[in-house]
Design brief:
Chain A is an alpha+beta fold. In chain A, 54% of the residues lie in helices and 16% in strands. Chain B has two domains: 118 residues, Response regulator (Rossmann fold), CATH 3.40.50.2300; 97 residues, Orthogonal Bundle (Arc Repressor Mutant, subunit A), CATH 1.10.10. Classes of the chains: A alpha+beta (468), B alpha/beta (223).
Chain lengths: 468, 223
């Protein structure tokens, strides 16, 4: 019952209910108008027929006198389907005709009867005139002749009334059928809408419960429900992706922060459980400080990424020379690269003015060189810093190595926080380097792209050329 | 050296004071900005360690108020805010150095001692000497036991900074800041490599080491 009622509590059902009510109102007006005008038409017809006959009988009376008139009326009243006739004396007593009794007072006034009146036909039970429900009604003209005799000529109103009744019945039946049809359609349309809504609700309930792989049902009809479901599915897809990303990050946080924390704890525990006399507390504590420093670095990097992503000091970008920063960092890193058995070549030879933050760009290039040393490692390998102008709008600074590169499918992914490719998990690092670079490039209105240097990886920082 | 620590975290302040005592200095502690300002204004301190976020009056306003009265006591700002623009605001307000929390005490101490030395006018000397190593700031000549040593410009600046602060611990971050002018943490041992190159140039062929590695802190030039 609740579901049945719920079917009516839908937009479709409410709309059809509204239409049904409007339609019924129009139909009722129509019924009254049609039956009314049909009845008026028939009454007018009746009056005209009576008037014609009265004129006819008037002629008879003038030509041949009363006697012939009475005989004529008597003859006319015996015909099958005859009109109504009554001849009465001056007191209203019946003399001749096919009407034997009348509603009292009808004969008192000459001319048209004001309203339809009740009468009894010759041969019928006279008492019928006391029963206004059953008695037939008629319309008539009363003529008072010279000697006080009254002549009534009328016509039964049964036919127009029956006609009106039939029209009304027919209309009511037709409207009833239509109403029932509308009601059924209302019910089924409402129920169908409700069923689809229910399916969507069930699907979304599953999704809310945590099953983000679920999707809303889409039928082949491509109606408004399907369009809505399709766009909602797109939204769920996006949420699901973000959720996956978030889970990856929290998994990585758990791993990348828990691992050093665990090591920290284990070291303290091991130092305590060993021989307190022989334990080299100093070394243990120094190691622990180193471990803690690493953790702090990870936190600092995370904080810096969020601050850079939030766009801090965007208004404080100064005119800086990219080539100078590159040269300084090349100089800073050159000995380290050499110690790793590789060479660092800085190919930039012309000034590259851009609007930027020297510290952050320095940090970004540092991260790229760090990565090149860690992952582009190869005996006698070469790390190259180069720059080019692209189409007058962009300055592209590239750091290339000759290592194993990054597979195409991972080139976007490695920019994420804590993302480390499986091969690099064994090497030290936080997985935050490239995401910091990406955030820094975002702050500068630029872009970070990873390209294939064949062999090796080329990381390109694209800066917009400064306006001034 | 007598230091005033203005820090609202009671435990951190107590730890700092104790560490200062152990390093042979004396330290007073103030726990809010107003109190700290009053103590700095009336007392005679060699250096101030000021937390940036303090109750009642923030650290930077304490320092700028002191500077406005002509008090130039070197001040080191401590802050949980460590970004480039925060550092710039901190230094513009009159702070002499800026250190981000969490910090190593050795780093704090090294920076404080450098600040004090700056007060004593070492900056103006034209010739630095550690043992038999001599650096002439006018001719940019470096000699050890009268033997000329050829250095790259950056190596010269590195050595100059180390010798200016001889007898003091100089941390890797301080070197990156002062010799290269970058304020981020070097992710790898970039500085160590430069030091070892410099060391091989000034110590090769000589018995006595002058450039010492201080474990867990940094480096020190010492006879």
């Amino acid at each position: 019952m609740k579901r049945f009622l719920a079917a009516f509590n839908t937009t479709a059902a409410r709309l059809s209910a509204l239409y049904l009510i409007l339609f019924s109102a129009c139909a009722v007006i129509l019924v009254f108008y049609m039956t009314g005008s049909a009845a008026r038409f028939l009454v007018n017809e009746t009056r005209e027929a009576i008037a014609e006959e009265v004129q006819d009988l008037g002629g008879v009376y003038q030509r041949n006198g009363l006697r012939v008139l009475v005989r004529d009326i008597d003859r006319r009243s015996r015909r099958p389907g005859a009109n109504l006739y009554m001849i009465a004396d001056n007191t209203g007593r019946y003399l001749a005709g096919n009407v034997i009794a009348l509603q009292p007072g009808v004969l008192d006034t000459q001319g048209w009867t004001e309203k339809p009146f009740v009468y009894a036909r010759f041969g019928d039970d006279v008492a019928v005139i006391n029963d206004p429900e059953k008695a037939p009604r008629a319309l008539a003209q009363v003529i008072v002749v010279n000697n006080g005799m009254r002549i009534l000529v009328g016509r039964d109103l049964g036919e127009p009334q029956r006609f009106r009744e039939i029209v009304r019945q027919a209309l009511i039946t037709a409207l009833g059928i239509m109403a029932a049809g509308g009601f059924l359609i209302w019910f089924f349309v409402g129920r169908r809408a409700l069923q689809r809504i229910d399916r969507v609700s069930e699907a979304s309930a599953r999704i809310v419960a945590g099953d983000l792989s679920g999707r809303l049902p889409v039928s082949s009809a491509n109606d408004e429900f399907d369009r809505l479901s399709t766009s909602l599915n797109g939204m769920i897809e996006k949420i699901s992706k973000l959720n996956d990303g978030l889970r990856d990050v929290s998994d990585s946080i758990a791993h990348d922060l828990k691992t050093p924390l665990t090591r920290l704890r284990n070291r303290a525990e091991a130092a305590l459980s060993g021989d307190p006399q022989r334990a080299d507390y100093r070394t243990v504590l120094e190691d622990m400080i180193g471990e803690a420093d690493q953790l702090i670095k990870v936190f600092n990097a995370l904080l810096l990424i969020s601050r850079v992503e939030a766009g801090f000091s965007k208004q404080k970008l100064d005119e800086v020379d990219l080539s100078a920063i590159a040269a300084e960092l090349a100089e800073l890193y050159e000995p380290l690269v050499e110690d790793a058995g590789m060479t660092l070549v800085n190919e930039i030879d012309a000034p590259l003015p851009i609007a930027g933050n020297r510290e952050l760009i320095g940090q970004a290039i540092t991260n790229l060189i760090d990565n090149a040393i860690k992952y582009g490692c190869k005996p006698d390998g070469k790390i190259t810093i180069s720059a080019e102008r692209a189409g007058g709008k962009w300055l592209r600074l590239a750091v290339s190595d000759q290592g194993s590169g990054v597979p195409d499918e991972d080139k976007e992914r490695v920019k994420g926080r804590f993302v480390r490719l499986d091969e690099s998990r064994t090497k030290p690092g936080s997985g935050l380097g490239l995401s910091l670079v990406s955030a820094i490039m975002g702050l500068h209105g630029g872009d970070l792209t990873l390209e294939d240097a064949a062999p090796g990886l080329r990381v390109v920082l694209s800066f917009p050329v400064s306006k001034s | 050296m007598k230091v005033l620590i203005i820090e609202d975290d009671v435990e951190a302040a107590a730890y700092l004071r104790k560490a200062m005592d152990e390093a042979g200095h004396t330290a007073d502690v103030a726990h809010n900005g107003d109190h700290g300002y009053a103590m700095a204004d009336t007392g005679t301190y060699d250096a101030l360690v000021v937390d940036r976020m303090l109750p009642k009056r923030d650290g930077l306003s304490v320092i700028s108020a002191l500077r406005a009265k002509g008090d130039m006591t070197p001040a080191l700002v401590l802050s949980a805010l460590g970004e480039v623009d925060d550092r710039v605001t901190g230094l513009r307000a009159g702070g002499d150095d800026y250190l981000t929390k969490p910090y190593a005490f050795s780093e704090l101490l090294a920076r404080l001692e450098v600040l004090l030395r700056r007060q004593n006018g070492v900056e103006q000397e034209t010739r630095y000497q550690v043992g038999d190593l001599v650096l002439n700031r006018l001719s940019h000549e470096v000699k050890r036991a009268d033997q000329s040593i050829v250095l790259q410009p950056r190596e010269y600046r590195l050595l100059e900074y180390l010798m200016r602060h001889s007898g003091q611990v100089v941390t890797r971050t301080m070197l990156l800041e002062n010799v290269w002018d970058y304020h981020f943490d070097p992710q790898t041992n970039v500085i160590d490599v430069h030091i070892s190159r410099l060391r091989s140039k000034i110590e090769k062929g000589f018995d006595k080491p002058l450039l010492h590695t201080i474990r867990g802190a940094g480096y020190m030039m010492r006879d």
